Structure formats: structure tokens, C-alpha cells
């Protein structure tokens, strides 16, 4: 019974979550909407459009379509300025070891990210070649918590959802994996990702034995 792995990007492979936070916080403040870590948690894994919609909802703001589009562009520009400074050193601890082990053992691997910048980021950190397929924000019409991004990944990898093991740092992403009957593995705060089938603080906890346990589950 073959297993396949799907990795989220932001917050799982690289800590770009902190860059999204800074860029959204600036934007929210410019609109005089308060924005804390707690609100940010709800934006993780959520598409750019839906994130801005949420911020406007929280602040009870309504703006024109033009203003909406220019705010999205502004946020992305600010975010990309952080991304520009990224290098392989930004890969989170243990990720490279896990990817290497999975590749050596011939597991199919896909990326399942909501980000439209996913390919650019993978190039910056030099990880593109580890992925058999990349599904990102440019290829899906329904954002997480809808499972579309992960279902597309399975399709491309040629596996059933039940064969997929998903690494996610967001509540929306864990929901997406669970909805599609994939094994959901929360990376980060267990209290926040309590709906995940398994929880780990980070990839350094994912020893070969642990990975074997996941594939046998
Ligand atoms: P972009 P992931 C998600 O990526 C981020 O978690 C989320 O905070 C961001 O708004 C979303 O991508 C869209 O990203 O603005 O770059 O298209 O965690 O699904 O890899
Ligand atoms: Mg993420």
C-alpha cells in the first residue's frame, strides 16, 4: 500500500509565516484595523484574497474594488521584499533530512500550498527538485480549508487521498486534509492544531522511525 507525502510550504518548509504576518500587520494598521498574533493564526493557509476580506470584516471596513486590488498588490510587494532575501539557510530545521529520506525511499512528494509565490520561494531555497509535483495558489479555485489543493496533489501523484500524508502548520490546512480523509500531521503548536491526526513541534522530531510509523498508519 503505497504512501505519498504532501507538504504545505509557508510555516512548514520555510518560516515565511512571519513575513506574511509583518506585511498583513502593516496593511491592517494602515486601515486602522487591530491585528494580533491571534488574528494572524486565522490567516495562515488562507489565500491572499480571503485574507484581505477577513481583515476588512474584522475592521468593519468596506472599500472599492480598485482599492482592494491595490492593497493586495501592496501587501505582496512588501512580502516579496522579505522573500528576496531568502536562501537555503531559511529551510526550517529537519526539513532537508526528511525530504532526503523520503526521496531515497522513493516516496512520491508533492507541494500543496495556497501561495501564488510558492514556486519562487522553492527556487530561492533550492528545494524545487525534491518535488514530483507542485500545486500552488495559481492552480486552485477553492482555497483551504477546501481540500482542492491536496486532492490535485494526489491526482498528480497518482494516489488516493487515503494514501496521502499531509504536513501542515495551519488550522485551515489541517481541516482540508481531514475533510479529504488524508492523514493530517500538524507542524507547530499542538494546542492550535488540535484537529490533526499527529502533532510535531518541527521536523527535527520526525526521525526515520517516526516517518515509518506514519507510513504504516
Ligand atoms: P500568497 P501555505 C499560504 O501558504 C500562507 O500560509 C498564507 O498566509 C498566505 O496568505 C497564502 O499562502 C497566500 O500566499 O500571498 O503568497 O499567494 O501555508 O498554504 O503554503
Ligand atoms: Mg502554511
Fold topology:
Elements: E1 4-7, H1 17-30, H2 37-43, H3 48-58, H4 65-83, H5 95-104, E2 109-112, H6 118-125, E3 133-135, H7 148-157, E4 164-168, H8 171-179, E5 183-187, E6 198-200, H9 208-216
Parallel strand pairs: 1-2, 1-4, 2-3, 4-5, 5-6
Magnesium ion binds next to loops.
Description:
This protein is of the alpha/beta class. Helix content is 45%, strand content 11%. The N and C termini lie close together (11 Å). The structure holds 1,6-di-O-phosphono-beta-D-glucopyranose (B16) and magnesium ion.
Number of strands: 6
Beta-strand share of residues? 5-15%
Order of helices and strands: EHHHHHEHEHEHEEH
* Assembly type: single chain
Class inferred from helices and paired strands = alpha/beta
- Bound small molecules, deduplicated: 1,6-di-O-phosphono-beta-D-glucopyranose, magnesium ion
Largest sheet: 6 strands, parallel
Please name the defining characteristics of this protein.
globular; 217 residues; six-stranded parallel β-sheet; HAD_sf; alpha/beta; binds magnesium ion; binds 1,6-di-O-phosphono-beta-D-glucopyranose; single chain
Quick overview of this protein structure:
It is an enzyme of class 5 (isomerase). The protein is an alpha/beta fold and 217 residues long. Helix content is 45%, strand content 11%.
Amino acid at each position: 500500500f503505497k504512501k505519498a507525502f504532501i507538504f504545505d510550504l509557508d510555516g512548514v518548509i520555510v518560516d515565511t509565516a512571519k513575513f506574511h504576518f509583518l506585511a498583513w500587520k502593516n496593511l491592517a494598521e494602515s486601515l486602522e484595523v487591530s491585528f494580533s498574533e491571534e488574528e494572524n493564526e486565522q490567516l495562515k493557509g488562507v489565500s491572499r484574497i480571503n485574507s484581505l476580506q477577513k481583515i476588512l470584516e474584522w475592521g468593519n471596513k468596506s472599500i472599492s474594488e480598485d482599492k482592494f486590488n491595490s492593497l493586495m498588490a501592496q501587501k505582496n510587494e512588501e512580502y516579496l521584499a522579505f522573500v528576496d532575501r531568502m536562501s537555503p539557510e531559511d529551510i526550517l530545521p529537519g526539513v532537508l533530512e526528511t525530504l532526503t529520506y523520503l526521496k531515497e525511499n522513493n516516496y512520491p512528494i508533492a507541494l500543496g500550498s495556497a501561495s501564488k509565490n510558492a514556486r519562487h520561494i522553492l527556487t530561492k531555497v533550492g528545494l524545487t527538485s525534491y518535488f514530483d509535483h507542485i500545486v500552488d495558489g495559481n492552480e486552485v479555485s477553492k482555497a483551504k480549508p477546501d481540500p482542492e489543493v491536496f486532492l490535485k496533489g494526489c491526482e498528480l501523484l497518482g494516489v488516493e487521498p487515503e494514501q496521502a500524508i499531509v504536513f501542515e502548520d495551519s488550522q485551515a490546512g489541517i481541516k482540508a486534509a481531514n475533510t479529504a480523509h488524508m492523514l493530517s500531521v500538524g507542524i507547530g503548536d499542538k494546542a492550535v492544531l488540535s484537529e490533526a491526526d499527529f502533532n510535531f513541534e518541527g521536523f527535527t522530531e520526525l526521525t526515520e522511525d517516526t516517518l515509518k510509523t506514519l507510513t504504516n498508519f
